[in-house]
Amino acid sequence: MADEELLHRQMPNSVEAEQSVLGSLLIDQRCIPEVIEQLTPDDFYNRQNREVYEAIYAMFTLSQSIDAITVLERMRQDGTFDAATTRGYILQLVEVTPTSANVLEYVKIVKDKALLRAIARTSADISAMVQNNDGTAQDILDAAEQRIYDIRQGRSSRGLIPVSSVMHDVFTRLEELAASSREVPGLSTGLSALDRNIAGLNPSDLILLAARPGMGKTSLALNILLHAGKHSGKSVVFFSLEMSREQLVMRLLSNECFIDNKKLVTGKLDREDWKSVIMAASALSQTKILIDDNPSLTVADMLAKCRREKNLGLVCVDYLQLMTSSGSKRTASNENRQQIVSDISRSLKIMAKELNVPVLCLSQLSRANESRTNKRPMLSDLRESGAIEQDADIVLFIYRDDYYNPDSEAHNQAELIVAKNRHGETGTVFVQWLPEYTTFSNLETHREPPN
Length: 451
What we know:
Strand order of the largest sheet: 3-2-4-5-1-6-7-8-9
Structural class: alpha/beta
Distance between the termini: 97 Å
Low-confidence stretches: 327-334, 445-451
Mean pLDDT: 81
Number of domains: 2
Shape: elongated
Number of helices: 18
CATH architecture of the largest domain: 3-Layer(aba) Sandwich
Largest sheet: 9 strands, mixed
Number of strands: 9
Radius of gyration: 27 Å
CATH class of the largest domain: Alpha Beta
């Protein structure tokens, strides 16, 4: 008896709710946008219901008129029309749905059942991983957390997705950009010339910021973090594997109140300085800038922490070569360091996609440029791994000529070299370097007025 019951047990579903949703769409086109926004074809358990919804979904993307007749024609084109049953089933959906007034209630039921099915499949997969001893406990825990996170984000299905299903999201993004008053589509860096060159920091991008020690990598990253924290309205996270949180906040204070960093380090502040510091501290406290200075973080640790943050806008990591591989038991003695760095850079790119936010990662450069006459960095100078260049969407180098040539005419100026840019052209952006505040600013705001 128990075996027979198990044989006939079905995954959670509600055929009635699915039919009511489809019937509502067929009799009232006004409710289609709300439903399309909340349901995907995979949310439908019944195959016939799923095929009908796929046709409606594709037609909505193409702005076509939707009713029983046009949906039947679309299903003929898609090859999902069954002459014996489809026409009668479509008419039945229309007849059994007297009104679309409760369509959102039906949608909730369909979504709830789809969520339960996803949880059931994930639970079975995790149990199978444990039974088959697929990796260490930490590996399985990371995989389980990833799968649960995917369900929460509505990405439990990892199958092939037709272009028609993605087109709606693309058009929504285009409409948002067209209606926006922002000069760049991505998150602003606070440096207008750089924003124009790379179109800001865009979701799911891995941006690599590399330079030799002392060029100002951390300063530029904090510049960008502070601007995003103050103006984006989102949470921004800084993972520092090198500097302590107190040092980082001191840098942020110096940047915000424009007081010489040496004064802050030594505490030699006069009355006016204290007023500026207090005002800057108050302004910084209003932002959602989050700092983690744990020196032994892995990408998996970072991802787990960031998943818990609502309205996340930007993640900064300082810096790549100090990170440990997600399988933290591995060391350079039993695994090639180049392979470890390759794994880390790939994991950072995956993290950017999973969180759908820009990830700004700092990196050291090799000493190769110092043996050249022209010491400007090149992609071949990236330290330890060519995979870093491959995984990054944007690669930025910092070069200050007066670092190598004290008599340089470009005193306290920096070149931000865009060596790779998946969104546009490469090139060089010139900015002002303010060493006393350890910060960068727009060059045009510091030019001397004409005589």
